[in-house]
Design brief:
This protein is of the alpha+beta class and 415 residues long. It has 14 helices and 20 strands. Strands 1, 2, 7, 8, 9, 10 and 19 form a 7-stranded mixed beta sheet that branches. It has a 6-stranded antiparallel beta barrel with strand order 12-15-14-13-16-17. Strands 3-6-5 form a 3-stranded antiparallel beta sheet. Strand 13 and strand 14 form a beta hairpin. Helix 1 packs parallel to helix 14. It is elongated. The protein starts with a strand and ends with a helix.
Amino acid sequence: MNYDVIVIGAGAAGLIAAGRAAERGAKVLLVEKKERAGRKMLISGKGRCNITNFSSQANYFKNIFPSGRYLKHAFGRFFTDNIIELVKKFGVETKIERGDRVFPVSDKAKDVVDALLHYVNQNNVIIKYNTNAQTILSENGKITGVKVQENNKINDILCKNVVLCTGGKSYPATGSSGDGYFFAKELGHTIIDPKPALVPLETLGDVAEKLQGLSLKNVNAMLWVNGKKYKEEFGEMLFAHFGLTGPIILTLSKFAVEELNKKNNVKISIDLKPALDQQKLDARLLRDLNEHGKKNVDNIFKLWLPSKMIPVFIELLKIDSKKQAHQISAKERKNILLLMKNFEFEVSGYRGFKEAIITSGGINTDEVSGKTMQSKIVQNLFFAGEVLNLDANTGGYNFQIAFSTAFLAAENIEL
């Protein structure tokens, strides 16, 4: 059977590409190697699915790498209000939370996936699950079909267009195992070396391990490279047995991974009291020590730190936990202050693709038209989503990239 378009991968990008192409009147086949669609969407946002970010294009451009402006045409064609309107059409009401993050009111990612599947099914897209694309077929620089494996049989399925929506390499259990890079490279495309992004960081020593499970809010994390401050983020983070994670650490991780791969020295320092400069914090410490002079050190620390952090701090500061507050020397007070303002960790590595939210790297966008998402090398070959060398900070930006590039690709297929 011949198709106008075969979409490879039934994730966020694939569902939009298939739905929009079929809506335009194309005969569409959507092939998915797993047994269901949208597996990565189902686990995103802790199972809530951060659909998009309700902010300006200018803000998006600041949060996308290596160049957000590449997406100007895609965003101009299909943006935040469009995806919100689309899922609403299929019964999903949305809400805006902190940082302009958009979630379904139900807090259920499944509702979003179901809505996109309704979109696809309403437009008569044929979906084949448990079907592995093996290679993309072309002749004289033009798409002719896709070789697939289904039920242990390998078949060539003919088509006019292919939209490659296979994702990156992050969360491989969901189906994102890097197949798309292989297909694109076979057809002559350049692949920017894929690396884990939005990924937890591993640290030296056992301090993070002692604090594992502790979440900190309203702290400032600073990334240092070879002793120079490189980036900083304010917000929430979490300690794990291997090191550091949580929203602000994941945002800094892109740069940490790049610098670690350059063999540079990378550190993260945490300012636990960013609302107070050193002078104001010192005044507060002094006041508390004077007012609670007969309290033991381990009790006075309860005024300043989460309980789980107290024994770790006392050990690092080498202070007797039973010493009374009025016995704390000026030097010891200074050391307490410095540790609160500069709680430092040396970064030794990062977790793998299994724990990375997205992939940095992918198909070189210099070889893909930003106006159509069509390959500049092979006619009628289109790309959308994470398979491209585009990645963004947390907050719904990455899903919007997938939706927008997929819609633009579907708008430009040959009917």
